[in-house]
């Protein structure tokens, strides 16, 4: 059941790897999706257990690197949001 659930993890970020594995090694698709699932789960647990934003800023302060990472994540999420709307308009 878990590999079936994990097979829904076809995101634009791993689409190229998905297509490559689909054509060259279809037997590796389930392990690939399981790895993506466990990676996302681990990242989520780390983010939930980590420091709060206020604690992070008190400890490290404002940096150019942090601002660049924040801007990159904002830009990436904005682009991903536009893909969701295309999906919704196409299916309805």
Name the helicity range: over 70%
Q: How is the main sheet built?
A: none
Estimated radius of gyration = 17 Å
Total of helices: 5
Distance between the termini: 29 Å
Helices and strands: which structural class?
mainly alpha
Structural notes for this entry:
With 92 residues, the protein is mainly α. 78% of the residues lie in helices and 0% in strands. The mean pLDDT is 80.
List the helices and strands and how they pair.
Elements: H1 2-6, H2 15-24, H3 29-49, H4 53-60, H5 64-91
What is shown here, in short?
This protein is mainly alpha-helical and 92 residues long. It has helices at 2-6, 15-24, 29-49, 53-60, 64-91.
List keywords for this structure.
92 residues, mainly alpha, 5 helices
């Amino acid at each position: 059941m878990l590999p079936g659930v994990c097979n829904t993890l076809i995101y634009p970020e791993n689409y190229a790897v998905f297509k490559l594995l689909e054509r060259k090694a279809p037997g590796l698709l389930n392990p690939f999706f399981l790895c993506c699932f466990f990676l996302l789960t681990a990242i989520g647990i780390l983010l939930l257990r980590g420091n709060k934003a206020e604690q992070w800023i008190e400890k490290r302060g404002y940096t150019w690197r942090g601002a660049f990472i924040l801007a990159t994540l904002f830009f990436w999420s904005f682009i991903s949001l536009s893909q969701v709307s295309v999906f919704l308009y196409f299916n309805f």
